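[#protein-structures] MJ: dropping Glutamate--tRNA ligase here for a structure pass
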Amino acid sequence: MTNSGVRVRIAPSPTGEPHVGTAYIALFNYLFAKKFGGEFILRIEDTDATRSTAEFEQKVLDALKWTGLTWSEGPDVGGPYGPYRQSERKDLYRPFVDKMLANGGAFHCFCTPERLESMREAQRAAGKPPGYDGHCLHLKAEEVTARIAAGEPHVVRLKVPTEGSCDFHDGVYGDVSIPWESVDMQVLLKADGMPTYHMANVVDDHMMKITHVARGEEWLASVPKHILIYRHLGLEPPVFMHLSLMRNHDKSKLSKRKNPTSISYYSALGYLPEALMNFLGLFFIQIAEGEELLSMEELIEKFDPENLSKAGAIFDIQKLDWLNGRWLREKLTPEDFVARVLDWSMENGRLVEGLKLAQSRVTKLGEVPPLAGFLLANDVGLTPASFGGLKTSPAETLEIVTTVQADLEKILEWNVATIEEELRAISERMGKKLRVVTPPLFVAVSGSQRSLPLFDSMALLGRSVVRQRLKVAIQVLTAMAGAQN
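AK: finished. structure tokens for Glutamate--tRNA ligase:
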């Protein structure tokens, strides 16, 4: 491995709360760049226009900055190979697609959504994996031209060999062979002219001179598609490295349905970014027992991409807690500790805005902590007694909280207005008055039936913390409802 010309990137999609898995992959790329004197680049992959939002992009930037990682090129800092948002690069992809159409590496597909769904249903009924059946693969050039001229909607698909296999070397898994028959004829260009992830990914990595692509192992099966695109374009692919996914103790995939996964959640609970990076960095290095407490500089020094484990990276929250405690006690001076606590309490305006909301609800300053303390608490200590004074039964309360938790995920922009709008809509859909729906939520997010305004509180707590508190409430209420049956 030489030190010259190494360029790596992190390319998150702004379609939700930034995941700790994003920080995990970003850290690997950052360590790789620093170890070999290369460049670490941030690119926003927002080709999914229906789910990508400016708010989520800002959350991605804020979350990665909070971790302490820095990039030399990106949408916020610019660079010689911009733009660094795929949505701003639309016109750059078409020439590459046209080249593949011209040399037979791609073809026009006019199949309607109805035909594709019927095809998939037939494949599922026959016990076959769903995949494009090649219906438009051999259309004559004259027919294609005529149908395009007539304005018929169409996409562009990747032409895939029918025999043999794609053989490549992965920086983690070694030599890999994937049969071509298992590779789908992927859509490369959508009907609206936007590229799919696979096409944009390859073109952007080429144009930004990316030398090494390090990403999660879930993308390993996509490598044949990417290699095929590189071949059809006559380009040299980068070195691929697929990292083991972070998993729960039961080896299941780390997901927000089971555990908190948002970077913002760990920030809100008062984890230090240095501790989180320390914890994630341990997956990429070999150390002896007792050497766990490491700064970023020490992680870079010990980082060795030639000696990575293919075993699953277990997200052990107890180990993270232990490391975070050690950072608080051993790495911070008393003055640093006080400053960190003050900065943390001010994050997202929680303390200041919470105090403003409390002003009209107290007669003495001493009443502020029990009233507003839930904004800074890790756990509001929900028990069956917490819900005891509600007018709704445990079963009805459970129905309300469960419905609200699922529907809140649909909110694209998280603020007081959108939260209120969604809760009013939920009340209407459930056929309940808003004053029936809100009391259980007061208890779920604050631990008390007397609290600050609900919509404001949920906005200040943030989506990831509210999600987790509702999840805990559901567990308590499920036990209560079950005990009554």
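MJ: nice. Residues 463-484 form the longest helix (22 residues).
AK: one more thing. The chain has a mean pLDDT of 93.
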